[in-house]
């Protein structure tokens, strides 16, 4: 059974810092890995999707990497802003049409 | 463009009462549809998914059920709610299997008292 772990559970940084969120998964037989953002009381917004054959994806200040063999992914956020404050969720597609989520990293960026 | 709707946005129900949550998708056809639950302190848990009308797969045994009466409509139901059913329920859709991202609705906050 696939298990996804996210570290740290919470992170507080001052505005402008670069930061890294970590995600690990137990079964390397995956279709893809996705990073989502969730604002309090809201649904999820897809940030980046990395196919199993890819090593990284970039979107603006966000960069996600994937090392499938070691079961790890990182989400790098450059020059953090208060608007980046949210919970970031990592999810792995390893079954037919299903995602397994981590519990998330709650990020607070203070001005 | 595609949009996904969920209602109601919030719901407070007594233990033992029935439940019906609705999810609809616009702007696409034959989507895969999903129901997730997010409980306090826990990750998102997949409850049901559907690859077509009348086709429902259950991931977790529980007192909830799902139905897909139309191509772009997905309903989550219960005959008798439990306290443990409280949580944030999210519906999602994807254009295919495996390699595609899922798009999430705004969610329904359910509190069972």
Q: Low-confidence runs of chain A (pLDDT<50, min 5 residues)? A: none
Main sheet of chain B? 7 strands, mixed
Give the total of beta strands of chain B.
Answer: 11
Task: Summarize the amount of helix of chain A as a percent range.
Answer: under 10%
User: Roughly what fraction of the amino acids of chain A lie in strands?
Assistant: over 45%
Largest interface: A-B, 25 and 25 residues
Gyration radius of chain A (Cα, Å) is 13 Å
According to DSSP, the number of beta strands of chain A is 11
The succession of helices and strands of chain A, N to C, reads: EEEEEEEEEEE
Distance between the termini of chain B: 38 Å
Helix tally of chain A equals 0
Coarse shape of chain A: globular
Overall SS class of chain A: mainly beta
Task: Report the uncertain regions of chain B.
Answer: none
Question: Biggest sheet of chain A, open or closed, and with what strands and sense?
Answer: 6 strands, mixed
Task: Give the overall average pLDDT of chain B.
Answer: 91
General form of chain B: globular
Helix content of chain B: under 10%
The pLDDT mean of chain A sits at: 94
């Amino acid at each position: 059974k696939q298990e996804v772990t996210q570290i740290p559970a919470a992170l507080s940084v001052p505005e402008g810092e670069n930061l890294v969120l970590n995600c690990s998964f137990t079964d390397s037989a995956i279709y893809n890995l996705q990073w989502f953002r969730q604002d309090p009381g809201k649904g999820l917004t897809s940030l980046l999707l990395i196919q199993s054959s890819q090593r990284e994806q970039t979107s603006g200040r966000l960069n996600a990497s994937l090392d499938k063999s070691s079961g790890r992914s990182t989400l790098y956020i450059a020059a953090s802003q208060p608007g980046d404050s949210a919970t970031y969720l990592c999810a792995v597609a390893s079954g037919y049409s299903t995602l397994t989520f981590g519990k998330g990293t709650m990020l607070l960026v203070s001005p | 463009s595609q949009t996904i709707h969920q209602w109601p946005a919030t719901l407070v129900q007594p233990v033992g009462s029935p439940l019906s949550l609705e999810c609809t998708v616009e702007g696409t056809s034959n989507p895969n549809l999903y129901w997730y639950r997010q409980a306090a302190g826990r990750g998102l848990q997949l409850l049901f998914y559907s690859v077509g009308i009348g086709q429902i797969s259950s991931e977790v045994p529980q007192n909830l059920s799902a139905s897909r009466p139309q191509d772009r409509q997905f309903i989550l139901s219960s005959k008798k709610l439990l306290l443990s059913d409280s949580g944030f329920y999210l519906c999602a859709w994807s254009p295919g299997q495996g390699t595609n991202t899922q798009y999430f609705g705004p969610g329904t906050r359910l509190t069972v008292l």
